[in-house]
Write a structure and sequence with these properties.
Elements: H1 3-12, E1 21-23, H2 33-59, H3 62-81, H4 83-90, E2 93-97, E3 101-106, E4 112-117, E5 125-128, E6 133-138, E7 141-147, H5 149-162, H6 167-174
Antiparallel strand pairs: 1-2, 2-3, 3-4, 5-6, 6-7
Helix pairs in contact: 2-3, 5-6
Amino acid sequence: MTCDAEWQLRQALVRGEKLLWSGRPPAKIPFQLEDLFDLIVGLVWLSLTLIWESVAILSGVVLMILWGIPFVLIGIHLTFGRFFPDRGARAPTAYGLTAHRVIIVRGVSRLAVRSYPFSNLCDLQLTEHCDGTGTIEFASAKLERIADARDLYERIVALQARDPERATAATDVDTEFPHLYTEEPSE
């Protein structure tokens, strides 16, 4: 965790609130199996348009050359373009967990803070990836490709169950994670 991420999250905390966990999505461009089909379609499109442009340039017909340029640009975008906006959107993002909410902060000079109180979290989903990271989805947001996602998921569920406004969630979750709710006997 860099100082920038900690600074971003500290700006979003209210007085007396404590940060229990913080993280950020990886800066590297993730390549997933789902991207393979899109990449193949993009490469086929780009190849065909480059052939078109080559023939147009060799024939010297200006209208054919101009007609093919937008299609080449579309092929470049289909093949490579979708990775760069994804990286740019994730780079200044930081995730935080407090005792009462999940925080997502985007931006550096101008912060955009999204807060998700546990009372509003429903349909919490964990997707574990083969690279050891995981994505936690809830409401209309997600914590993407974070390390130790299962641990964070279990912490959110445990905190959510302790929230008085989520009393019904505790009964739903106890069967899945009973070890989180058993109290140690006091000696």
